[in-house]
Amino acid sequence: MEEQLYFNIRSKECTQVTNNADLIVNLPFSIDLLEDQWLQVEVISAEIPLSFYNISTALQNNVLSYTKSPGAVAVNLTIPSGNYTVDTLMSTLNGLQSQFTISYSDVFNKFLITLIAPVTAINFVYNINNYTQQLFGITASQNITSPAFFGGVVNLASVHSVLIRSSLNSGSSASTSQSNNDIICKVPLSVNYGGILIYNNNDYTRKNTIKSGSISQFYLKLTEQNQKILDLNSCNWEMSFLFTKIKHDMNTVSEEQRQRRTNNYIEPLPPPVIQAPIIQPTSTFSPIQNEAEGQQIEQPLINKNEDNLSNDENSLIKKPEDLPVEPVEKMNEPPKPVDPYQNLDTLLFSLIDD
């Protein structure tokens, strides 16, 4: 029989590691598993305020770096953390420096850079891991000496979804990145900034199975797609878990199945090779030894039918001299023509009698 436990978590009642999206959850009891028990863990609901910024120090996307000429001077512009639109980002960036102006094209969804004298050139060096460049649409290294657009489009949707990570993940999920193997739930951004993300696992499809051990503590983190811990700006959130103990009989499974369950699968031995049966012939020849010449002569097959053995006249095997032979003269005679009227008289008398 299954044992179920609903456990509610409030962020303000947990131990914070870096902020209130990076927690240690201490259970008021211990969940112990017997040898014939597994534990299923499910996030059945969550209420998370969308209070994190799209540009922030936490997301590491608020520093724009470039070099300006003359002099090849390195510049690092730090953008204050905040929730920006295209217009507010342009006005903020134009107020932070005087080397260029940035404007926006609604047609192309791109930023346009125009130099301000005495600056003669601005060089952006592309880095695939630079999250700030992803916001501005910088998709390749670019040396700007005259008004020019960045190569890519503007993308201020820096957070794609909220990923719930925990040590309760037992390896039942995977991703293209090995560092994402602790994800136990994914919450889409269904509201705008300032709203509350409400998640309900109504169909209970996402389950994590723990096969052994004891649980009294686990970590819980809220991150975005690049593993950056979100900064909820001290807003609290709630989450509910469902723990289900599943009983299984280990004595009814084979050793191979048991190894699979413990992730230590041993490849079984290959099946034995069965040789095809050798079919003996039904009739055999018994050799007769010729003492004079020292050779073996095959004995012909003999019909062992009892009637044939008792009566040579009815034998199925005939000697050539016993077969009827037609004379040569008779064999060479042409066939006699057939007279169509030879039986006419007999036919007429039979009709008269009738």
Describe this structure as you would to a colleague:
The chain is mainly beta. The chain has six helices and 19 strands. The strands form five sheets. Strands 1, 4, 14, 15 and 17 form a five-stranded antiparallel sheet that branches. The chain has a five-stranded antiparallel sheet with strand order 2-3-16-12-13, with no helix packed on it. The protein has a four-stranded antiparallel sheet with strand order 6-5-9-10, with no helix packed on it. The chain is flat. About 3% of the residues have low confidence.
Instruction: Give the beta-strand count.
Output: 19
Helix content: 10-25%
How many strands, what sense, and barrel or not for the largest sheet?
5 strands, antiparallel
- The end-to-end span amounts to 101 Å
Give me the secondary-structure category: mainly beta
**Number of helices, counting only DSSP H or I runs of 4 residues or more:** 6
**Poorly predicted regions:** 301-311
Global shape: flat
- Proportion of residues in β-strands: 25-35%
The average pLDDT is: 81
Order of helices and strands: EEEEEEHEEEHEEEEEEEEHEEHHH
The gyration radius over C-alpha positions equals 48 Å
Short summary:
The protein is mainly beta and 354 residues long. It has helices at residues 86-96, 131-136, 255-261, 306-310, 328-332, 344-353; strands spanning 3-10, 15-16, 22-32, 37-49, 63-69, 73-78, 100-105, 110-115, 121-124, 142-144, 148-149, 161-166, 183-188, 196-200, 208-210, 214-223, 238-247, 287-290, 295-298.
